[in-house]
Input
Amino acid sequence: MMAVIVNLVRKGFYLDSVGLMRMSREIAGMDGVEDAALMMATPANREIMRHAGVLAAEGDMAAASDLVLAVRARDEAVAHQVLREAEALLDRPRRSNAEAAQWRPRSLRAAQAARPSLNLALISVPGEYAVAEARKALGRGLDVMIFSDNVPIGDEVELKTEARAMGRLVMGPDCGTAIIGGAPLCFANRVPRGSIGIVGASGTGTQEVSCLIARHGGGISHAIGTGGRDLKEAVGGITTLMAMDMLDRDPGTETIVLVSKPPAASVVQTVRRRVAESGKRFVICFLGSDGIDLPTNAVAASTLRDAALLALGRTVSAPRQPGHGGGSAGRIVGLFAGGTLCAEAQIILQRAGLAVASNVPVPGASATGGPGHLLLDLGDDEYTRGRPHPMIDPSVRDEPLAAALRDPANAVVLIDVVLGHGGHADPAGAVADVLKRHRGPGPVVVASVTGTDEDPQGLAGQIARLEAVGVEVQPSNADAAEAACAHLDQTHGR
Amino acid sequence: MLAADPVLVDVVPAASVMPHLADRMILHAGPPIGWERMCGPMRGAVTGIAVFEGWARDLAEAEGLAGEGAFVFEPNHHHDAVGPMTGMTTKSQWVMVVENRKFGNRAYCTVNEGLGKVMRFGGNDDEVLDRLRWLRDVLGPALGRALRECGGVPLKNLVARGLTMGDEMHQRNVACSGLFLRALAPVLARTSGAREELARALAFIASNDQFFLNIAMALGKAIMDPVRDIEGSSVVTAMCRNGTDFGIRVSGCGDEWFTAPVEQPRGLYFPGYTEADANPDMGDSTIVETIGLGGFAMAASPAVAGFVGAGSAADAAIFTREMGEITLASNPEWTIPSLDYQGVPTGIDIRLVADSGITPTINTGIAHRKPGVGQVGAGVVNAPLACFTQAVRAFADRMGVR
Output
């Protein structure tokens, strides 16, 4: 069958050629259409249409100020149908999508040009590029938070030394949590503002302390992250000391909490001297190093929970005496998303007289495979290589949790659920799903939820999800670890 | 760049102002290239221009001569000149002269041939060559007389007005072509010898929405040349392509070209043509992006943004704002009403390109890949990142940075 060429002329109708080309493409793609064109009938355009084999006599006679709708189609019916649709396209009301497209700056320079008041850069790029990006940010007058890890410690020292000379703060590398002026950065929770400042070398430690302060009615001025290596000998606590200076100067901060794993001995002395110079009250929580000699304006906290309570001016009960005899048949298995929460639990179990093994052992604990109760940090490299952190993707815990529930040697399974910005939308739901699938008898499951009701996931709802599947939810990680110990005691009828 | 004062002062035979433009030398668009690596349209134009110059009797003989090495090929950029698409410039063609009155330098570009089948898209038949002869024998001399009579047409202000009227000076030159004609028509009438000749000249300019493009290109070249050879300057002084390679030059890197394979434009096609017909990107016209127009001034010309996206004013603004990330300043005199009179992003810094990975956006016409066919569409293309990363390395070497 022969194709037909049909033209329609709109006298004195002008439309921009780009708009016409887009419509041409639209109608040329319709069923039964061989080719089509919407063009102003200038001599040059008529030539193009003639060449394309879509120009009929009507179109050829049109004037330059006329619009030609030209189509070559399978048959007359199709051609006329298509031209009707083309006319509808021409006449349809124009939508403005001014709202749809929004420019987002892609460089620090452009972001600063658009918002000159910006003063902090958050850097999350592969570790090998992080230092170069941080230097650029520092050079642009910005304080820096580096989420990236895998930055050599030598580079960290250089960067922090340079930044200190410029009077700027470097939080990190490997800094997962900060709350600056009420803004949660990376993994952080929605907590009210208040008079307690936090300097934290650990992410989940800062999250737990800030959430417990919030849940007891207090608030946070700023939570400044330092990165996990800041209190090592090589770095010498550069960021910690600068953060202490900042909070010391901040009129909104009355009490300062330091949260970290045990620092290098030399750094402890430096930090101690800095504390002594300050007029503010300090709570020092160096997890796993009891018995630091502190100035009179400071108190030591042996757990994250105690750090929060002491910061609020509450008293804390003395550590429970070791009350558990050896030789128990039941085992505690802890499966943690938060590294510092895992460390805190190890400390509490040890204090209860239990032997502990961990993939990230605190002083006194043995490595995985050693005797005793097993507490695993599932956020450690061996579990996260090539996959997301369990706070982002809680399914990392699914398989170990299911296995722990099946193992008759386990008396208690201890878990943490960490809420907040940056984390998974429903981490408790992931735990609940595994528990629902478990059949038959199993160990007691004890959990704590780090978070607030203002967090995106909502504290109350997450607790409810866990309780609905029989999880015993404790008000803090420390309480959960203590409850786990208590369950062992009961198991053995002490 | 911002201090430049470009004025279109004359139209003259190329050989009279380009001392090194020899017989049987063909200037082409883009970085240096020989016959063997030239794309279809460029070869088509070469054979056509050889016939036009009388170096060959017909296209077949011209092709044979080209293959034997009878012609010398050099970039326009080596002769203070620029040319659109294939960019053919030879001794007896007439070129427009833009003088940068602030710095005293001059730049050249041939007169736009109009739309349809033209040599800049590789067209080379009698119709194309006859038009070139008319440009040489009639229009060129007439324009030259008029421009000398009126003392030249200042261009900086004309471009500023064009931007407020929806031109971005690469794909869209409707307003500037009209403004130019308005400025020149009275003088042309006064200096023209014959009424028919005048009528044809006026009709030729009036019927060509892209007439101003070649003027904008010479203006771009005149603005950028004083920026060349500034030690320690990482500003791009030229971007161009020959249909095979994309090339850039950088102020602090002397006359060195940094090249990479040219990319394929994304765009819309005339009826009867598709992507399969498209030649890779071509021409010296990217000099207009180098000075902050074209793709960089997309926000002034939302219609042009339609070649790649939805074509809303907001989409167009994003192109311009993104180019702000790789440029050092915005031009206080060339402003865009829809961006609250923000100036066009100006002065591409190779370091900012390499750092951000954002490459210059270029508005371009699309030529048929076969010689002689002509334009088949228009669209947008990006400068290849490799040109800029190479340039940064070379620049760092020169600066003694490792």
Summary: The two ends of chain B are 29 Å apart (CA to CA). Chain B touches chain A at residues 114-116, 207, 268-273, 303-304, 306-307, 310-315, 317-318, 321-322, 324-325, 352, 355-358, 377 (CB under 8 Å). Residues 107 and 222 of chain B are 5 Å apart (CA to CA). The mean pLDDT of chain B is 94.
